[in-house]
Structures are given as structure tokens and as C-alpha cells.
Amino acid sequence: xxxxxxxxxxxxEVIVTAAExxxxxxxESPVGVLLAGxxxxxxxxxxxxxxxxxxxxxxxxxxxxSSEIVNGTNGHxxxxxxxxxxxxxxERREFSVPLEIVGxxxxxxxxxxxxxxxxxxxxSYEDIAISVGSPxxxxxxxxxxxxxxxxxxxxxxxxxxxxxKLGGYGGGLDRKKYLLELERR
Length: 185
Prior knowledge:
Blueprint: E1 3-7, E2 13-17, E3 22-27, E4 34-38, E5 43-48, H1 51-64, E6 69-71, H2 75-88, H3 105-115, E7 123-124, H4 125-131, H5 138-146, E8 159-160, H6 173-184
Helix pairs in contact: 4-5
């Protein structure tokens, strides 16, 4: 049985086994349909459903989980759906749904740093690079940011260019602008 090192969101390392099923479901939102995925440990995917972006993220997920991917739901996906409704209604500033974050040590450091950017605020890629102790790794931060498989919950939309421009966003700049404006209300 294959195993992969992962991150369960609270700092502890987890082992992902090939026997574990990954459950996925579609969630409607004001920014379009999202595909969410979770194991028994937590949410590991929240992605916009444009084919090019979704295929990249699903390929990444398949590399980490050699288990079956099935349509359905579980407690984590139900909680995520509820928290997303609250977020888009302006009633939730932080997500509490358990996460299963799988990535390199550097990626996990970047993604953890994204999670501490306060609601309604932004940071530059350079700010994040400095915060993770790699001030010259601005491009690597951008790559890690773009590899985030749990959109909105791990708020990569809060990262902008140093000059204040929006920069890129896997979900598209219109969505990034919408999310930032939602949080600034």
C-alpha cells in the first residue's frame, strides 16, 4: 500500500494511504461552481471548474492519492459547504473545516502563511517570501501560491503584486477581485 506525507492543517504530519477514498462534490457559489474533495481526514481540494485549471489540480491530486475518486459527500464536505455559504454571505471570516494539505515543505510553509493573512487584507508575494524565511524566493512563492489546491479556504486570492496590482489568480482575475471586494465590505 502506497503512502505519502501530508499536512493536516494543525501542524502535524499525516500519512495518506492508497486505500483511502477521495470523495468529491460540486458546490455552487457566487463565483461559479467549485469542485470540492475530501478524505476522512479533511478537505484536500476546492477548485474552480474551468477544465484547464481543474485538470491540472486533479492530476496533482491523483499523484498524491492513488485511491479511488468518487462522487459523493462526507462530513468535511458538508461543513465546507456550510462555511462557504457563510463566507459568501459575509458572516464568516475564518474557516474551521479540517484540511488535509499535501505538498512540499516549502509549499506547506507558504500555504500556512496565506492562512494567517487577515480577512480583508492583502500581502505581496515578496511579503510572503520574507515571512517564510526565503526573501529571494518570490517566484517560488508565486509558484506555490498557484499550486494551492484549496482555493478560498487557503486564501491565495489575498496575495497581490508588490505595486498593488492584483497579479495572477488561477480562478481568474474577476474572481480574485470579487473575493477581495467581498472581504473589504
